[in-house]
Sequence to fold (278 residues):
Amino acid sequence: MASSTLVCDLCQHPQGDHFAQKFDLNYLKCAACGHIYADVTGFDYVGENAQANAELEGTHNAKHDSARHLKVYDQRLKEFAAYRTGGRLVEIGCSSGAFLRRAGQAGWDAQGVEPVAESAAVGIRDYGLNIKIGTLQDAAFADGSVDVVYSNAVIEHVDSPRAIVGEAARVLRSGGLFYADTVNIASYTWRFLGERWKLFDPRVHLHLFSPESLRRLCEQAGLEVLKMTTHGVRFYATREERPHGFNRLLDELHKAPYSFAARRNLKGDNIAIYARKT
Ligand SMILES: [Zn+2]
Fold:
């Protein structure tokens, strides 16, 4: 099995074994801890992420204001309410700030960090949001000054999730909450679709977590994991492949037991983690 000398971000082991290849890039599996990460040596993943973000931005802005998204935001804000003391909530990778707007309406001192300047500018200019252009580390919040650090589909994109979660732990007050959701490689969807899965993309998803590796990431930053949830099961790689009419109904029926089981066994394709600063 081919191996590489790239260092694992989670455990700092210097070597990974070949896991899979897509778009001429390799995913490696850490020989020590099993974490899966992309070998993007010589590849402009920052540019690729920025381009993907710019392409999605138009649809995202419309989509993220939809009733369905507002309902999801409200559900999360309801969960976060128990952690509110000083009232500061920080979103990592907030894009143009759809969630921050909702958090602000719910009474939070909502602040965001966003490295893509064009996205941040929309939130600052059009909505008057408090967004700092850059990373969480760039924002340099004071120690223990934040009640909730929130990130939605961000940690799989960054160079070092370990550095970000470490910084989140530093800025959280004792008892504050860290929330992250990300792609789950230990999922039914990975089992069914393998490399055809759309989210299995080393150009933009540099890290592919499992419930086990996500837990480890939080625990090594000194966070206590309170709960993890997963949801989402896919049988088809693209919308076009999905059957129509009656066969769609059969497909949904076939999927139902997996979707149901995923709530308990953490095999849904999207994982969320809630961890507390001790
Ligand atoms: Zn490792």
In short: The radius of gyration is 19 Å. The CA atoms of residues 34 and 264 lie 23 Å apart. Residues 44-183 form a domain with the Rossmann fold fold (CATH 3.40.50.150). The longest strand covers residues 172-183.
